[in-house]
Each structure stands twice: as structure tokens, then as C-alpha cells.
Amino acid sequence: xxxxxxxxxxxxxxxxxxxxxxxxxxxxxxxxxxxxxxxxxxxxxxxxxxxxxxxxxxxxxxxxxxxxxxxxxxxxxxxxxxxxxxxxxxxxxxxxxxxxxxxxxxxxxxxxxxxxxxxxxxxxxxxxxxxxxxxxxxxxxxxxxxxxxxxxxxxxxxxxxxxxxxxxxxxxxxxxxxxxxxxxxxxxxxxxxxxxxxxxxxxxxxxxxxxxxxxxxxxxxxxxxxxxxxxxxxxxxxxxxxxxxxxxxxxxxxxxxxxxxxxxxxxxxxxxxxxxxxxxxxxxxxxxxxxxxxxxxxxxxxxxxxxxxxxxxxxxxxxxxxxxxxxxxxxxxxxxxxxxxxxxxxxxxxxxxxxxxxxxxxxxxxxxxxxxxxxxxxxxxxxxxxxxxxxxxxxxxxxxxxxxxxxxxxxxxxxxxxxxxxxxxxxxxxxxxxxxxxxxxxx
Length: 443
Fold this sequence. Notes:
The protein is mainly alpha-helical. It has helices at 9-17, 41-51, 65-73, 78-87, 103-106, 109-118, 146-155, 163-171, 180-189, 193-206, 219-227, 237-244, 246-253, 258-282, 288-299, 301-318, 322-335, 346-362, 365-381, 386-398, 402-415, 423-434, and strands at 54-60, 88-94, 126-130, 136-141. Strands 2-1-3-4 form a four-stranded mixed sheet.
């Protein structure tokens, strides 16, 4: 099989010397991963081949909070260091520019730009993995805890899970649609959305649309359709089958409303989103009544109302009409059944909390009271959840119940781990409450 790519000598030579860490706030790097910053590419490659090690490249930016979180909470861990140092040669590359950059970092701005272009490094942190021969094999975007980072590192050495290896097979027409879900998942985790869309469209038109009318709905088939949603259109055969058999799909998954959720997603992205994109460019208000009637005629009033509501939420958000935005946001959540949402799963708890916080930012007194009932339901399942406590504290504070709000925010501030991504926001809210300053968005 043809190898995906080999990094040029110049690019890697710059990469190895392109990182200079002098900011001690990023954590102690004497433990954990051992970063190689003083070898040429030839020396690095010789070492990787001799020791049969892969190469790990951490693409970071000085402004990137998740990058710093990784550097403080993941890379220094002994378990991470032991695993990575035994199997990988690890290097780092700064992808941005700053006034504090020394001469060494500045020398390799071009290298960083070349890697950014070559490997589509658009989101940070981004992790690139190469074979001992210098071939790109895997990519992943986003912060991970130590357990999931180690899982990623293991996947990077498994040819059945490597993004670039799977993509090379696909490009060489070695297509196995029964296994294509692995490539779709890998592409999304790598932030390669164009590739994901391309593969999804191919899978829909050359596999899913050719399935029998008497398709046997299994979890595997449903999961594949789910992964291909951005390639499914309302005119596709698989959409028609999915629409007609939605109750069977819910039954297979034992999840009432699952199929409806996916059907709404497809209708929204085909019937509503293009209209919103056009309105944002032209400034012309969409004809919501006409749109609702057209969708209702094709798919029924239920789907029409939900999708138009979602469109109204997005439209008023884009135009910063916060009064209308929060009104339609609440109505949409009610239509989606938030009042019956039980906080027994992590996703439901997050939905209740996040929805309540969104209303907090823009809502009036009556709307805040409704949002308070949502977050109370979340806390009934997990009363020590610092994010939900923070949400309730902010709602109470905005309602004028400042003493209660401050006491709860003190509790959230005590519970939130200093290394978590919520810490800075909760600390900021706590400081503002103590100074009697607003913690919500000024209109």
C-alpha cells in the first residue's frame, strides 16, 4: 500500500528545534514525557528506527488554554511518561506567534505554517503521529485526560485505527463499507470534517441508498447512518426508509425519540440552514410561515414546528436579538421535552444545566424561574456537580437573591478542581459576586 506522506528533512529539522519552553507556569517537564528538542531529523529518524519507536508531535499555541491544561495535568504524569517514552520520540511545535517568542522559535515560523497547511492543523491542541520511517499515520484534535490520551497513543500504533492509514486504503479503493465507520470516526476526531463529509456522501450513495427495502435494522446499521448524517439528504432513499421505520429504530435502541432527533437534524440542515446562511449575508428576514408550511406538507407539522423554532433560535442569536432569542430558546426546549427530561444520565444532566445557563445569560425574571427548575432537577441527581451549582448560583444572583447566590458560588468554587476547564469561569463569577458586579452578558 502506498504510504501517505513523508515529512521533508527541512520540515522536521525545523520541527525538532521549533519548541523552546521557558514558561514555568506550563508545568514541570522533568517528569512525564521526555521532549526531544536538540536532534536533527536524521538523528531522530535513526533513533526511532533503531528503537522501533513512533514519533509524536504536539502542536500547541501560546494562547491555548487546553494546551496548557494538557501540559500541567497530562504530560507530566508518570504513567503517561513511562508509556510514551518507551514507545515514542516526542517533540513539540508552536503553531502561533507571540511577542515573547525567542529567536529559536521565530526561526521556525515557516515550519509551523507548513505543517499547519500540510496536515490541516486548524484546531489546537493537535496531535500528529508518525511511523519510525517518518510516515504520517494518525491525527487527533482536542484535550484529553491521561487515560484517554494513553488510549489515543495506543490507537496511533494500530494500523486498524490510524486515521492516515485508513484514509490511504480508502483512497486506493480498498473500501469495506462494513468497516467504514472506523474511518468516519477517526476523521472527525482528527478534525478532518471535509474528509468526513466526503466519506459520508460516498457511503450514503454507494452503500446505504442501495440497501433493501426490507433492511434489518441493527445497532450497527443505525450507528453507521448516524455517522453519515452530514451526507444524508431528504431525497435519499435511506432517509425515506429511516423516516418510515423510525419506531422500529427507536425500538432497536430502546430509545424513544432517537430517530426523530436524527430526522430533525437532516431536515434542519437541508431546509433551514441554507435559508439562515442566505439571511446572514443579505440581511433579509426569512419567511418563517412559508418555510413551516413547506416542511409540514412534506413531513408533518411536528417536524415543521421544531425545525422552524430551531431556525428562529439561530436567527435571533445571529442578529443578537436576545429578547426573541431566549423566548424561542425556551419554547424549543419545551417542545423537545425538557420538562420530562430525567437527569439520570450524564448527557441529560449536561442538557439541563447548559440550557438553564443559556437562559440565565439573557432571560427575564419569569424565564429565570423556569431555568431554575431545570438546574434543580440536574442537582437532584448530582448535588455536588460544581457546574450545576455555579449555574444555580448565577440564576439566584441575577434574580436578586444575592446572599444565596454568593453562598452557592462559594460552594462551587470550593468543589471545582483547580486543573479543570471550569475553574477560571467559576473563579471569575465568584469574584464578581463578591464585588456585586453582574455575571451575565450586558445587553
